[in-house]
Design a protein that fits this description.
By secondary structure, the protein is α+β, with helices and mostly antiparallel strands. The chain has a single domain, classed as paralog of FGE (formylglycine-generating enzyme) (Alpha-Beta Complex), CATH 3.90.1580. Helix content is 24%, strand content 12%. It is built from nine helices and eleven strands. The strands form three sheets. It has a five-stranded antiparallel beta sheet with strand order 1-2-5-11-6, with helices on one face. Strands 9-8-7-10 form a four-stranded mixed beta sheet. Helix 1 runs antiparallel to helix 2. The longest helix is centred in the middle third of the chain and has 15 residues. This is Hercynine oxygenase. It holds the Pfam family FGE-sulfatase.
């Protein structure tokens, strides 16, 4: 069982790998924060996987117990996964009615980072280096929507603490102050709360989901391209991308977030990769790519004080939307400008 647990941990969000490995080796509580405690209320509400072993949840006395229960259940999943054949790149699927819509991305190698001289380039975007994905993987083609997030909160009974105290920008019960429909991106959750959603989704579906790594996110955004964007700047402008993404100003048709999929997809079938809301990433903050993994995995270590984020949001300039642009925030941050996607592991070809 111990080997199976470590196999599962290796598939999960990078920033939690260190925490969970420490929990297993030292028998200590995983420091997910007070806001992770309501996850204990999942119990038998997380679908068939939890029903098979509801006792694990009933006996869980702490967030540590919840994490052990998640690991124990998910450790069984690789056996199930091998029974199916990996879908072909470009295939779109959902694992359940309220699950995110996933698209299969191909295996391949790409150059991560940006060249010197690219408009808006920052020092943390280099050096250029090749990253290889040995097999296909699936990513949510849209940012997780408010409707999908609300369903998660409904099924689990979890409540999200308020966040951000700026007038007009407050997050109240995981909702922004601006109008938000079910097809707009979910916002106002911190990293621990995203991690809890991913654990719930994995249990609900019997599949291995995790938070997107920085390499996976850039690979998906580039979709085979090598420049700042996989599309040209708007005709007759210097740097506008209003016909391709929701960024600063109403020129793109939106003053706040837009419904996901409002702009054209890229060559991989991914939407909103260059705007709408920033996205949580599994990697710790790093000042450059020296020593970065080359296999597409998340780059993490102990004492990770800040995490990378990717994308750009509705209130920032297009220069921050570049495929290779990097940003970072503290894990406890909640805001009306930050959301997330998920990745799902795929079985090997059968």
């Amino acid at each position: 069982m111990k080997n199976l647990l470590h196999r599962f941990i290796a598939t999960q969000s990078g920033a939690l790998q260190h925490l969970w490995r420490g929990s297993l080796s030292e028998r200590r509580t995983v420091p997910l924060g007070r806001e992770a405690a309501p996850a204990l209320r999942l119990k038998n509400r997380v679908g068939c996987a939890a029903q098979r072993d509801g006792a694990a949840f009933r006996q869980a006395p702490s967030p540590q117990g919840f994490v052990y229960a998640v690991l124990a259940l998910l450790a069984l999943l690789p056996v199930v996964a091998q029974a199916s054949t990996a879908p072909l790149p470009g295939k779109v699927f959902k694992d359940c009615r309220h699950c995110p819509e996933m698209v299969v991305l191909p295996a391949g190698t790409f150059t991560m980072g940006t060249p010197e001289g690219e408009v808006g380039r920052e020092p943390d975007e280099g050096p250029l280096h090749e990253v290889t994905f040995a097999k296909p993987f699936a990513m949510s083609r849209y940012q997780i929507t408010a409707g999908e997030w609300d369903q998660y909160l409904k099924e689990t009974g979890i409540t999200i603490p308020d966040g951000d105290t700026r007038p007009g920008r407050e997050c109240i019960n995981s909702k922004p102050r601006y109008p938000q429909g079910p097809r707009q991106p979910a916002v106002c959750m911190n990293f621990a709360e995203v991690s809890a959603y991913v654990a719930w989704l994995s249990l609900k579906t019997g599949q291995h989901y995790h938070i997107v790594s920085e390499a996976q996110r850039e690979y998906a955004a580039r979709a085979g391209s090598a420049g700042p964007f996989p599309f040209p700047f708007d005709e007759g402008t210097d740097y506008s991308i209003a016909t391709h993404a929701n960024t600063y100003g109403p020129t793109d048709g939106y003053s706040y977030t837009s419904p996901v999929g409002s702009f054209p997809p890229n060559a991989f079938g991914m939407y909103d990769m260059h705007g709408n809301v920033y996205e949580w990433i599994a990697d710790c903050e790093h000042s450059d790519y020296v020593g970065a993994p080359t296999d597409g995995s998340a780059w993490v270590e102990a004492n990770c004080e800040a995490l990378q984020i990717r994308g750009n949001d509705w209130g920032e300039a297009p220069v921050f939307s570049r495929s290779g642009n990097r940003n970072n925030i503290y894990p406890h941050t909640r805001g009306d400008w930050i959301g997330f996607r998920v990745v799902r592991e795929l079985p090997s070809k059968g």
